[in-house]
Amino acid sequence: MHLDWSTLALQTVNVLVLLWLLRRYLFRPVAEMIAARRRAAEALLAEAAEKRRAAEAAAEEIARREQGLAAEAEQQRAAAEEGAAAERARLLAVAEADIARIRAEAASAIRRDRTGQRRTLEAEARDLAATIAARLLARVPGAAVSAAMLTSLAPVLAALPAEQRGALGGEIEVVSAAALSPTEQDACTALLGRVLSPPPVLRFRVDPRLLAGIELHGTHAVLRQSWRAELERLAHELRQEDEDVAPVLA
Question: What angle do CA 58, 59, 60 make, to 5 degrees?
Fold first, then answer.
């Protein structure tokens, strides 16, 4: 085989020139383009990573906000339940107070009605008793009634404590349902003179409302020994019994 060194040298020069041309006009632009694309890709990757980090941070912030909203909602729900319970308890207390007040007012109204009816009945009973007493007394001689009342007055005066008898002393007004005869007035004067010391000064007055009996109106005390006083005493006792029973019935 025969080598042509001149041809080989020319070909070598051609190869070198070709490599220089390729390096200058092909490899370098391609390398620069590849580098530019690599830089663009790296920039895109960095931007994507930054956006990813931002998205992850936003997601974490949203999660925190959701947790805060959930906690706030729970607090508001608990506060609403507590407020509703307090309002329900307040309304129940108000309702119970209203019920108690209505019951008390109803009981008071019932007691007032019962008391009013009782007093009306008592007044009617007193009037009826007075009418009956007046009719019965009309059949009895007045002297006998006066004598009986004077006789019943003696033990009552004797049973009084000394202090109360002293309060009757001085000047006494003797009130009777019917006018006392001079004899009866003398008997009354003698009776009071024996019981009271010093003997009082007597004045006599008539009050038909007593029905029967005698009342002694002293300076500091009154002694009532009449049918009207007995009727009033019985009515008072009935009212006391009614007041004692009323709370139990209410």
Answer: 90
pLDDT in tens, 194-209: 877 778 888 899 888 8
φ and ψ of 172, to 5 deg: -125, 135
pLDDT, tens only, 155-196: 877 777 877 777 776 788 888 877 888 888 888 888 887 877
Report how far residue 225's alpha carbon sits from residue 239's, in angstroms, rounded to the nearest whole number.
21
What would the pLDDT profile of 129-147 be if each residue is shown by its tens digit?
A: 656 665 665 555 555 566 6
The rounded distance, in Å, linking the Cα atoms of 75 and 80 is: 8
CATH of 142-249 given 3.40.50, 3.50.50, 3.30.2320, 2.40.10 = 3.30.2320
27: which DSSP letter? Answer: I
